[in-house]
Design a protein that fits this description.
The chain contains two helices and three strands; from the N terminus they run ααβββ. By secondary structure, it is mostly helical. Strands 1-2-3 form a three-stranded antiparallel sheet, with helices on one face. The longest helix has 52 residues.
Length: 154
């Protein structure tokens, strides 16, 4: 009788251990493969959205700089020269008459979304001033994410 009871208890412990067992190596590899396939399909789309967001950010920042330059023009009756640069929007350039800035809310001129300063030329080739970013590659020209983003090519 005692032997019979011990056998039943032993079977219960054995079945409890089987229900608590972990994942096998094959199961883990299947899960990792599924996750890798999902990332292979979703990853490029996410990266494409990030690239598009950087391009849109650059365009918005250029428009913001244009508005600040227009306010500068209303006060000083001229745009900052190329040598004064965009810095004239936050600091009085020399003995500038009529400067009533700063014309930007931040204390620094924003860099483009790729971390490089915007290029400012005044007088510009396409208007009273030109503002541009060379895009992701940092070189003039290019297509897609590497394309130049300019104040005149809207």
């Amino acid at each position: 009788m005692i032997n019979n009871i011990l056998t039943r208890v032993s079977r219960r412990k054995s079945s409890a251990r089987q229900s608590e067992r972990g994942f096998t190596l094959v199961e883990m590899l299947v899960v990792i493969t599924i996750i890798a396939l999902i990332m292979a399909l979703v990853g490029p789309r996410v990266l494409n959205y990030l690239t598009d967001a950087k391009i849109k950010t650059a365009k918005i920042q250029i428009v913001s700089l244009e508005h600040a330059l227009d306010l500068y023009y209303l006060d000083a009756n001229r745009y900052p020269t190329s040598s004064e640069g965009l810095r004239a929007l936050i600091e009085r350039p020399g003995v500038s008459v009529g400067w009533n800035g700063p014309y930007l809310k931040s204390d620094a001129i924003p860099n483009d979304p790729w971390g490089r300063p915007y290029i400012y030329r005044s007088p510009g080739e396409h208007g009273p001033y030109d503002i541009m970013s060379y895009g992701a590659d940092g070189q003039e020209g290019g297509t897609g994410a590497d394309a130049d983003i300019t104040s005149w090519g809207k």
